[in-house]
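Re: that chain you flagged

S.,

Sorry for the slow reply, it's been a week of failed gels. I finally had a moment to sit down with the sequence you sent. For the record, here it is as I used it:
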Amino acid sequence: MTTETDRAARKKAVIDRLMSLEAQELATAQAHYDAYLKDAQLDDREVHDKDDIVASRENADLAAAFDAPVHAHHAKIDVIENTDFSLTDTVQPGAVIKFNNRRFVVCVSTTRFDVDGGTYMGISTQSPIYLAMVGLKQGDVFTHNGVEFEVEEIL
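Prediction finished late last night. Pasting the structure tokens below so you have them in one place:
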């Protein structure tokens, strides 16, 4: 395999894991939403006591609380699906960047995740650290919060 093929395969594995992670987060949020929404519905009895009504309202409130994360994860998946993840040599949306021995995917913010022994984290294009390094190339130096970093690798 050529170096470009290796880089492309590594990047694809990272992006596939990023999408899988976000899909799992969406499924979890959706499951919570659905469960609380189901529990918020009163059964077919003609009369319900106060406890039934209170429990129904509490579950409706909890379902509403899980509605926002469902929409947020849908939005993140939409961004991931519409980002160009082609190999690049510039810090830009869709780039996988390594600096300070840490790896980041410029797309959406995520928790840390592992791929082939490396730890990655998604950052959004609105994050201050991304804004400090946008347009840079491997070997370039940038400063964030008074600390100087060198871009070690870009995929």
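What I noticed first: Residues 3-40 form the longest helix (38 residues).

Talk soon,
D.
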